[in-house]
Amino acid sequence: MGAILIWWLSILLIGIGYLPLSVWIFQKFDDRGWLFSKVIGLFLTGWLLWVFSVLKVLQFRQRNVLLLVLICSILNYLLYALYLRKRGLAGSAANPLKDLSASSVRLPLVICEEVMFAGLFLFAVYVIGFRPDAYGTEKFMDYGFMTAMSRANYLPFEDIWYAGYSVNYYYGGQYYASFLMKMTGLSAGISYNLMRGTITALSFALPFSLAYQLMQDKMGQAARSPWFAGFLGGAATAFGGNGHYLVYGIFLPLIRGKDKPHYWFPDSTRYIGYKPDLPDKTIHEFPAYSSIVGDLHAHYINLIFVLAVLAIVYAWAQKEDLRRPDRRPVLRPELVLIGIFTGLFRWTNFWDFPIYFVVTGSILFFVNWRTYRGEFLRWMGIMLGEVLEILLVGYLVSLPFTASFYQISSKIGLTHSHTLLRQLVLLWGLPAGIFILFAGRLIFERVRMKKTLPAALVHARRLALPDLTVLLWGLCAAGLVFLPEVIYVKDIYGKSFYRANTMFKLTYQAFILFALVMAYVLVRTLAGKGKILKVVGGAALVLLLLTIGYTGLGVSGWFGNIFKTEDRISTDASVFISRYYSSDYEAVKWLNERVEGTPTLLEAPGDSYSEYERISAATGLPTVAGWYVHEWLWRGGHEAEDQRIADVRTIYTSKDAAEVKKLLKNYDISYIYIGKLERKKYPGLQDKVLQSLGETVWSDGVSTYILRVGS
């Protein structure tokens, strides 16, 4: 509980420090961006320290994290005070905390949001404790990134599976988890799972704030609809499943009764190409699955940042929509923030950069079209200026990453296979149907007002801003579902998995957008007029609520009975070593306690997703070669990796001490690890040759030991 409290307080302090900026950005939000201040503060302060670390100005250490958090907080309040004084408001509102408490409507909302976030965070960490291990799927990679950064003085850190080279992957997501790790002073194992709990809680709380505000702007403060929309938006985003769960997890078991098949929650993410079995295997994951499985991967951590972008863009639209700005519209703080966020998506999750540039651009396009109707040249000039501003800011802030990043893939191909229509309908039929219902209702409302359809469409630009925003989000989501049926990004995953990664990254964001769309549309429909529409909306609402059962089923299937508190294991992700690799436990403990810096430690390499590389993942010490397919993807080829793997085999199995010594020097190896997996992989392992070249610094007295290589 002490670690949990420290972590929550750290995030709270970051949010309070950036509250002035949030109050400025979210002037028309009822909560003044209370929850988003945490995300914006983490993003901007973390980025500053990252830049200083890359430039070798500041080390990635706790004191520097705390120093920058303090400095940024002070600057925020000083700039806000100057802003108030400039506007003649210094006497009426001295600081943003008073602004938040000035209204009896806002303060209960802020308190509710903070209690909601803290409660969900605490509960998520409790549940995670029933299966806390950083073990299985891609956890070795995610956890290894964090342990590597726990050792690193400067960034980018050395690739734990390709010693001698910095990591060539968008590691920004894991960096932000490590930023909080350094700030709190907690271990990588504890921080790994606390970050998981943070993302789970914010993936509900942030959509709550955004859906609440959309409905509030549409219906007004007197209605209860904003609260309902907020809770529905949060639940649909964080805990909702897809249509596969509805059919195979609920309806078919009800029909079949005793003969009902067992539903395994990952089946919802591996349906296209698997049932029926076809040579076109795809992935279509979503936030609830990520929260359950527990990979602290780029697309999952970036979830909170893409939600922040959606909120910032909407906050910009609230101020700019249907009015002539009294200042130059290009120089807006919201646009600068959007540029920073989308630009840094190249570093946190590269796929989200083009996705949310387009989503943002669609809002900018139509809001400016409404504002500058009849002034084509000015409209186009402003649009061009805003787009260039966002791109330029994004390019500059991401330079410390892109300057040394080798882009994994940039080639686009046309798909030669397509999803079966019934599978598309099953997976996306519910959100698509709700969106079509919404679009149809908008047209009907325009027709009723303007008498004829052509006139209604011409006046569509007069849609209420929430309606326009949700309409554009729905269209973008539909486009993200449609794109993998037409094109794909070429990568190393050929044959049956050629479009799997493309569909995965695009439809993940489609799910998020559709979740917000469904929450708004259904509450708007039920709060509006028309009995038939209410009946249809009510039925759709029931289906959407049923999908939330996916999380309950997944939690019970993955974590077991969470009500048996005695079964809870730990909050520490590093317990996988003691639980699954007991013979390595004391060795890893020795390495973490005795070895400083990042000397190269040799261990046996293995395939991706295998148990190999458990030592480098658990310690953050780089090894010569690691997960094969991952490094193949990151390095743009496998020839050099093949050579490294061959050299490692030679080191462990050669009887020629001179040859082994030469290779040890070539890769600057300081330690050699010999354990069960090394003996399993290399039956001809030459203990005597290895021991002749180094000193045994740790041994279990049986078959596992660590050698320190001599000079």
Describe the structure.
Helix 12 (287-293) packs parallel to helix 24, helix 14 (303-320) packs parallel to helix 16 and helix 16 packs antiparallel against helix 21. With 711 residues, the protein is mainly alpha-helical. The protein has a domain at 582-709. It has helices spanning 2-17, 19-25, 34-54, 62-86, 96-101, 106-128, 139-151, 172-184, 188-219, 225-239, 243-256, 287-293, 298-301, 303-320, 333-348, 352-371, 376-397, 399-402, 421-450, 453-458, 465-482, 500-527, 531-547, 549-559, 576-580, 582-594, 614-619, 628-635, 639-653, 657-666, 676-681, 687-692, and strands at 412-414, 487-489, 600-602, 669-674, 694-699, 705-709. It has a 4-stranded mixed β-sheet. It is 64% helix and 4% strand. The longest helix has 32 residues, at 188-219. It contains 32 helices and 6 strands.
Mean pLDDT: 91
- Number of alpha- plus pi-helical segments: 32
Radius of gyration: 27 Å
Q: Structural class, judged by helices and strands?
A: mainly alpha
Strands in their spatial order, largest beta sheet: 3-4-6-5
For the largest beta-sheet, the strand count, sense and barrel status come to: 4 strands, mixed
What is the end-to-end distance? 46 Å
- List unreliable stretches of 5+ residues: none
Structure summary, number of beta strands? 6
Helix content: 55-70%
Shape: globular
Strand content: under 5%
Write the layout of secondary structure elements.
Layout: H1 2-17, H2 19-25, H3 34-54, H4 62-86, H5 96-101, H6 106-128, H7 139-151, H8 172-184, H9 188-219, H10 225-239, H11 243-256, H12 287-293, H13 298-301, H14 303-320, H15 333-348, H16 352-371, H17 376-397, H18 399-402, E1 412-414, H19 421-450, H20 453-458, H21 465-482, E2 487-489, H22 500-527, H23 531-547, H24 549-559, H25 576-580, H26 582-594, E3 600-602, H27 614-619, H28 628-635, H29 639-653, H30 657-666, E4 669-674, H31 676-681, H32 687-692, E5 694-699, E6 705-709
Parallel strand pairs: 3-4
Antiparallel strand pairs: 1-2, 4-6, 5-6
Helix pairs in contact: 1-3, 1-8, 2-3, 2-4, 3-4, 3-14, 4-8, 6-9, 7-8, 8-9, 8-15, 9-10, 9-14, 9-22, 10-22, 12-24, 14-15, 14-16, 15-16, 15-17, 16-17, 16-21, 19-21, 19-22, 21-22, 22-23, 29-30
